[in-house]
Amino acid sequence: MMKGLVTCLLVLVVAYQLGHQARAIDCTAVTESLVQCVTYLTGAADQPAAACCSGMKHLTQIAATVADKRAACDCIKKEAERFHNIKEEAATKLPGACGVTISVPISPNTDCSK
């Protein structure tokens, strides 16, 4: 009886862990959250659009775990490579301009693994 209970608990723990790993944030969600920020990031707009800031706030909500934040960071860096005219100063100011606090500096030199 006890052995069966322990086995059941182990299965539940493994299933729980796999479920959390499977829900890692993906680049599509990150891109969709930040697509409205391109005009601000490229200098075509002086202030981020309301939709951009909504996307930033949404991103902070969906990137809840450390793994999610690292994945989002990697996605942002990868996506930024597509836009060669992104202004680093605008990227650095974006969270503050949207009233969002993030724990990682926005920079092409950011190490997403930390």
UniProtKB/TrEMBL annotation:
Top-level taxon in the UniProt lineage: Eukaryota
Family matches, as Gene3D superfamilies: Plant lipid-transfer and hydrophobic proteins
GO annotation (BP), single: lipid transport
InterPro entries in the record: Bifun_inhib/LTP/seed_sf, Bifunc_inhib/LTP/seed_store, Plant_nsLTP
Record-level Gene Ontology MF annotations: lipid binding
Signal peptide, first to last residue: 1-24
Keyword Transport: yes
Start and end residues of each Bifunctional inhibitor/plant lipid transfer protein/seed storage helical domain: 27-112
UniProt entry tagged with the keyword Cytoplasm: no
Keywords: Lipid-binding, Signal, Transport
Any Pfam family the entry gives: Tryp_alpha_amyl
Matches recorded under CDD domains: nsLTP1
Family stated for the protein in its record: Belongs to the plant LTP family.
Function description: Plant non-specific lipid-transfer proteins transfer phospholipids as well as galactolipids across membranes. May play a role in wax or cutin deposition in the cell walls of expanding epidermal cells and certain secretory tissues.
Protein name as it appears in the record: Non-specific lipid-transfer protein
Lineage of source species: Eukaryota, Viridiplantae, Streptophyta, Embryophyta, Tracheophyta
